[in-house]
Design a protein that fits this description.
Layout: H1 23-39, H2 43-59, H3 63-80, H4 83-99, H5 103-119, H6 123-139, H7 143-160, H8 163-179, H9 183-199, H10 203-221, H11 224-241, H12 244-260, H13 264-280, H14 284-300, H15 305-322, H16 325-337
């Protein structure tokens, strides 16, 4: 049995915040409590409140503010001699690095966070940091390397009855199955994740699971209308919590659904919207995926063939440099789809 989902990144005097709290509310209250802790000379509390501030900034797509906040949280934790709080700050920094596409830095910070979490006796931050490492590898397309780690973390989360982490692991494993064409397995895992998240009142996890279900329904069953219905439900949660990144990925997925249905003008509009959103929050992976969808939609709408070839070639170079293996393969398939010779990546 799973209990209600909770947000372990909301610590110190912020433990009353819900996993479903609006990020703008988290940022406002977290900043207020952080200032109080600084004025009263309590670095331990400043570190804990600073973590929530960093995470709110990150999830709102405010990259520079998030970068400053996690580093300040780490300095306060180090001043307080709080090893676990140092680990949480590094976890936040590593997660931000992954979001920005700085994968080597993400690996380093998340690895350090896992080590400090173990040293500090905080099994939750250790688990979250290992999960961050697993997600980094998955996003880069290195499924063989991190598949086992996802399964291990899923087993640990199930044993502890921790709904939010169980949902995360299920969604990660489901995504790998989806990307390797095992749609039935992916659907079953996304469905389980959605059910657990709904029962645990984890609106963020539920929104991501709905997005996964919509993707599979679209690509496997060509069920466009049901996919769009699920994405609309997910979008409502994203907007209620101000989940900027999740909302942008929702729009990008809606573009995918329209594209597969041959509704290219609608797909183009959604990809343009997602691209604008990803650029505003400096999220290069999302930006590249939106660019790819937009290039394909424009090609279907009669865009100049040479310009399409140039855009896909540039995307291939960008993704090769960034180490996003699965996304790079998607560009290769797009080049084949339009009969364009893949440019040699240098």
């Amino acid at each position: 049995m799973y209990g209600k989902a909770f947000a372990p990144e909301y610590q110190g005097s912020l433990t009353t915040l819900s996993v479903n709290s609006s990020l703008t509310d988290v940022l406002s209250e977290g900043t207020e409590r952080l200032r109080e802790a600084e004025r009263s000379g309590r670095p331990d509390e400043a570190a804990r409140c600073g973590l929530a501030v960093a995470e709110a900034h990150r999830r709102l797509g405010q990259v520079r503010d998030a970068d400053r906040a996690w580093k300040a949280s780490y300095r306060s934790a180090r001043e307080a001699g709080d090893t676990a709080a140092m680990a949480w700050a590094l976890w936040s920094g590593g997660t931000l690095a992954r979001q920005r596409g700085a994968f080597p830095l993400a690996w380093r910070l998340l690895g350090l966070a896992a080590e400090l979490g173990e040293q500090g006796g905080d099994i939750v931050v250790r688990g979250y940091s290992l999960a961050g490492l697993a997600e980094t590898g998955r996003i880069q397309g290195d499924y063989e390397a991190v598949g086992r780690l996802h399964e291990q973390l899923l087993a640990e989360a199930r044993r502890r009855g921790e709904a939010r982490h169980t949902v995360w692991a299920l969604e990660g494993i489901a995504q790998m199955h989806r990307n390797t064409g095992e749609y039935d397995k992916a659907y079953a895992l996304f469905e389980e994740a959605a059910q657990i998240a709904e029962r645990a009142d984890d609106r963020r996890g539920h929104a991501w699971a709905l997005r996964g279900l919509a993707d599979v329904l679209s690509v496997r069953d060509a069920d466009t209308e049901r996919a769009l219905e699920l994405l609309a439900l997910a979008e409502a949660s994203c907007r209620a919590m101000n989940l900027s990144s999740a909302l942008a990925y929702n729009h990008k997925m809606r573009g995918n659904v329209f594209y597969r249905a041959g509704r290219y003008a609608e797909a183009r509009d959604l990809y343009e919207l997602a691209l604008e959103e990803f650029r505003a929050m400096s999220e290069p992976r999302g930006e590249a995926l939106a660019r790819l969808g937009l290039a394909k939609s424009l090609a279907r709408l009669g865009h100049d063939r040479a310009e399409t070839a140039a855009e896909l070639a540039d995307l291939a170079r960008v993704l090769e440099r960034s180490g996003l293996r699965h996304a790079r393969e998607m560009v290769t398939r797009a080049q084949a789809e339009f009969g364009l010779d893949a440019e040699v990546v240098r």
